[in-house]
């Protein structure tokens, strides 16, 4: 047994020696490879360290851009393809900075304009708290104090009664603050819009006192010119004919007196009608609304002026002031005849619409140019030689007194359409 064990040990030792001889070159190769790998790894690591720093810097600047800070830039002086990436990133930062600066400047300009405009501006959030109130709004509603954060409804409780009434009526409108010579006229407009997904309201209060005063003076000057012209046109021939009549009487030429007296009467009647029209326009009362059957109303109109009628539905009933509407439509239908339209081409159209009635007076005259269309509804504006400029203005006044509106437009093929929309 001992001999066998000894022989086994000897064989194992021999095999081990042979294996060691065979592995020796491989161990050297592995060792060399390990050394080379370590060197390569060190070189790669040395190259990757600044790249990792660059990537961290890029991530940091992107985070700054997201937060609205565009003041960062990156410096990269390594010779590699990453130079283009760094340059593009820096160019992006420069562009964002310039855009942000331009935006800030525009915001400053807008804020300066909003704060210094004479129009009082108040922005309300959904809870009706004031988000923004400019200087004019502070003076009008807050005694010069800041308005931001205050409850608008409570602010109105302390405002002038005219201001409260204007807001209580809802919508846009005009109101007067003060009395007698110390009064100011304002126009109120309110607009709703969505801001950051929530409904806000913008309130604008524009002072119109000075503008209306200027317009009032111009209107009075025009009224005086028109009245003076009309008075002179009538009084001059009346005075002349009266003198001529006296001469005819003195000479005993009585046969020519009836003609002179008839002319005097005609001019006096004209002057009387002229003054009556002005008085009617100046003293137009509030409409007295009552049910009106269109069929009967149109038949009544036909007894005074000729036209072709179209009423839909024929048995329609509206709530209007019949006397005022008749006055307006007679003026419009007479204007249509005076345009040179044949009686068969003067039409009155009455149609039911969703929110009321549309009444149209149509002719086949020469229509109106743009300048006349823009001014035809103004009081005392007329293109007629002896016109008073009150017919269309009176129709507009009556339509608006009913809560309606009136518009003029030229028709295809020639002619004019006067369209009046009345509620109900």
From TrEMBL:
Q: Which SMART domains match?
A: HATPase_c (SM00387)
Instruction: Extract the PROSITE patterns matched here.
Output: HIS_KIN
InterPro entries in UniProt:
HATPase_C_sf (IPR036890), HATPase_dom (IPR003594), His_kinase_dom (IPR005467), HisK_dim/P_dom (IPR003661), HisK_dim/P_sf (IPR036097), PAS (IPR000014), PAS-like_dom_sf (IPR035965), Sig_transdc_His_kin-like_C (IPR004358)
What is this enzyme's catalytic activity, as reactions?
ATP + protein L-histidine = ADP + protein N-phospho-L-histidine
Residues passing through the membrane, by range: 30-49
Which residues belong to any copy of the Histidine kinase domain?
226-424
Enzyme nomenclature, EC number:
2.7.13.3
- The answer, when asked if Phosphoprotein is one of the entry's keywords, is yes
Residue runs in coiled coils: none
Which controlled-vocabulary keywords does the entry list? Kinase, Membrane, Phosphoprotein, Transferase, Transmembrane, Transmembrane helix
Question: What is the name of this protein?
Answer: histidine kinase
């Amino acid at each position: 047994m001992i001999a066998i064990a000894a022989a086994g040990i000897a064989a194992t030792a021999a095999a081990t020696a042979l294996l060691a001889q065979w592995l020796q070159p491989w161990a050297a190769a592995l060792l060399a490879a390990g050394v080379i790998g370590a060197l390569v790894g060190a070189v790669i690591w040395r190259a990757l360290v600044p790249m990792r720093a660059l990537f961290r810097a890029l991530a940091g600047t992107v985070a700054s851009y997201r937060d609205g800070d565009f003041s960062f830039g990156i410096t990269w002086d390594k010779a590699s393809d990453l130079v283009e990436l760094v340059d593009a990133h820096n160019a992006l930062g420069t562009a964002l900075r310039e855009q942000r600066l331009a935006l800030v400047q525009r915001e400053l300009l807008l804020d300066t304009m909003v704060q210094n405009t004479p129009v009082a501006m108040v922005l309300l959030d959904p809870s009706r708290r004031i988000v923004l109130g400019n200087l004019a709004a502070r003076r009008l509603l807050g005694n010069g104090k800041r308005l931001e954060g205050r409850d608008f409804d409570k602010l109105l409780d302390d405002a002038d009664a005219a201001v409260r009434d204007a807001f209580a009526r809802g919508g846009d409108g005009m109101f007067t603050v003060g009395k007698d010579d110390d009064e100011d006229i304002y126009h109120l407009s309110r607009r709703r819009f969505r801001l950051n997904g929530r409904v806000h309201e913008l309130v604008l209060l524009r002072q119109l006192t000075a503008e209306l005063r200027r317009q009032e003076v111009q209107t009075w000057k025009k009224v005086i010119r028109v009245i003076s012209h009309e008075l002179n046109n009538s009084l001059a021939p009346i005075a002349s004919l009266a003198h001529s009549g006296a001469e005819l009487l003195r000479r005993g030429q009585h046969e020519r007196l009836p003609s002179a007296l008839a002319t005097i009467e005609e001019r006096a009647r004209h002057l009387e009608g002229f003054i009556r029209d002005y008085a009617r326009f100046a003293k137009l009362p509030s409409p007295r609304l009552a049910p009106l059957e269109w069929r009967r109303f149109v038949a009544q109109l036909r007894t005074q002026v000729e036209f072709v009628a179209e009423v839909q539905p024929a048995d329609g009933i509206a709530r209007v002031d019949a006397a005022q509407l008749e006055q307006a439509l007679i003026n419009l239908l007479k204007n249509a005849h005076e345009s040179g339209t044949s009686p068969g081409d003067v039409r009155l159209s009455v149609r039911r619409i969703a929110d009321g009635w549309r009444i149209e007076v149509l002719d086949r005259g020469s229509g109106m140019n743009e300048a006349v269309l823009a001014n035809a509804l103004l009081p005392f504006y007329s293109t007629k030689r002896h016109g008073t400029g009150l017919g269309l203005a009176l129709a507009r006044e009556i339509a608006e007194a009913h809560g309606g509106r009136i518009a003029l437009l030229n028709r295809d093929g020639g002619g004019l359409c006067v369209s009046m929309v009345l509620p109900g």
